[in-house]
Model the fold of this input.
Amino acid sequence: MINFILKLFVMKKFQILILGLIISACSPIRVNYDFEKTTDFSVYKTYNYYIDMQTGLNELDNKRLFHAIENQLNLKGISLSDNPDFLINVKSSEYQETQNSSVGVGVGGGGRNVGGGVSIGIPIGQSNINRQIIIDFVDENKNGLFWQAISESSFNPNSSPDVKEQKLNEIVAKIFSEYPPNQ
Done:
């Protein structure tokens, strides 16, 4: 009987672990947008990058990110140029997602019976590492900053190069899915 209970307990823990892995693997890419409402986005056909950007990424991830940006903008008919209509600034930072744990106390009763209980949430595993990437479009001749996207998603800096490239491509595709904005 004890063996059966022990196996049942281990199976429950295993199912919880698998569910947690599935949920974390499917973590969404969240993107918030902001733009200048009076901007005519159709006039922007060429771009380049600020020279002194501090992206917060290593050189290899910078190349992966810029390649993904170039691919998405080319799909939209916008090309890299030495005499650009606008400049792109990229900032990025890594942060650990806080784990949720809680303590709850409850008292209740009915009739002559009174009962109480305490529950404690214990975090299992480690915190997720997330990356925030901010992409700014700046027209230095007219409006200044005219479009901005801020993305947040899980990002493992220790992933293989192929996994990093795929993740950055997914992030950039999500970012530019709403460019140009519907006005």
